[in-house]
C-alpha cells in the first residue's frame, strides 16, 4: 500500500533539488563576475604601488647621478635594493608565493630610504 503523502514528499524534494541546482548555477556565474572585478581591482592597486616605487627609484637614481655626494652610501644601497626588488616582483605570476614577501620588503625598504633621506612619510 502506497503512502498517500509520498507524491507530495517527492514533489517537495524535486522542487528543492531544482531550486538548489538553479541557485548553485546562478551563484557560480555571480561568483565568477565578482572574482573578476576583485581581481582587476587588486591588480590595479598592485600595479599602482609598483609604479609609484619605480618612479621614486628613477627619480632617486637621477638625483644620485647628478650629485652622488648628496646621498649617503646607505641611501644609494637602499635605492639599488629597491630597484632589485621591483625587478624581482613576479608581475606575470600573481599566484607566486613570493608576491607578498617581495611587496612587504619593498614597502620596508621604501620607508628606510625615505627616512635616511631625512623626509617624512605622511601615512
From TrEMBL:
Domain Essential protein Yae1 N-terminal: 19-57
UniProt-listed InterPro entries: Essential_protein_Yae1_N, LTO1_adapter
Source organism, top-level taxon: Eukaryota
Family the UniProt entry places it in: Belongs to the LTO1 family.
Protein name: Oral cancer-overexpressed protein 1 homolog
Source organism per UniProt: Prunus yedoensis var. nudiflora
